[in-house]
Structure formats: C-alpha cells, structure tokens
Amino acid sequence: MNDEEPLTLREWEVLTLVAQGYTNPEIAEILFIAPATVQSHLRSIFGKLGVKSRIQAVYKVYTFILRDQSLSWRKAQMEKTPEHAVISLPR
After folding, report:
1. Residues 9 and 15: beta-carbon distance below 8 Å
2. For residue 78, what pLDDT is reported?
3. What are phi and psi of 82, to 5 degrees?
4. Which of the listed residues 16, 46, 68, 83 has the most CB atoms within 10 Å of its CB?
5. pLDDT score at 89
6. What is the per-residue pLDDT for 40?
7. CA 24, CA 53: separation in Å to the nearest integer?
8. Could you tell me the CATH number of the domain that includes residue 45?
C-alpha cells in the first residue's frame, strides 16, 4: 500500500462495501452519494493502491492486513518466548 497517500475514511468505507460484494449503485445508496461519486472514489483507491480492479484492491488490502497482524502476533510471541524456542504460527 502507498504510505505517502493513505486512503481517506470515505475510501475505506467504499472499499469495505466492495469487499462485502456490493455494487456501485448499492454502495451509493448505502452511503447517500451518487454512483458517479462511488466510481470516483474507486479510481482514487485504485491509484493509491496501484491496482486496476476491485478484486485486486480488496486482495491487496486483505493481504496487507493479514501480514500486519501476523507480524504483530510474531512480535508479541518473540517478546514472551526465549530466542531458542520454536514458534508455531496461527492457521
């Protein structure tokens, strides 16, 4: 993800609804905005994430969040586990 230009709150809302399978008209209705505004938010999201489709955008954010959670979990485990111990990752 682009650290220089984070997603806005509205872009996160749109992307969350995209991830839940809503169409642009449905997202517009839920957020009380015009369908063209949804499309504008999606273009901005795609540009910030460096992707070309809704599926790529959702996948990129999903894998970023999973990686971040995994790193946080591993760091927490390392803080309470001796260096020589084997750490089992969650499934």
Report:
1. no
2. 65
3. -60, 150
4. 46
5. 44
6. 98
7. 13
8. 1.10.10.10
pLDDT digits (tens, 9 = 90+) for 17-26: 999 999 999 9
Tell me the C-alpha distance between 78 and 68, whole Å. Answer: 15
Give domain status of residue 54, yes or no: yes
Within a domain: residue 22? Answer: yes
**Domain annotation covers residue 86:** no
Query: What's the chain's average pLDDT?
Result: 85
Is residue 45 included in any domain, yes or no? yes
Q: Which domain holds residue 23?
A: 9-80
Cβ-based neighbours of 27, under 8 Å, separated by 6 or more: 14, 17, 18, 38
DSSP 9-69: HHHHHHHHHHHTT--HHHHHHHHTS-HHHHHHHHHHHHHHHT-SSHHHHHHHHHHHHHHHH
How many separate domains does the chain show? 1
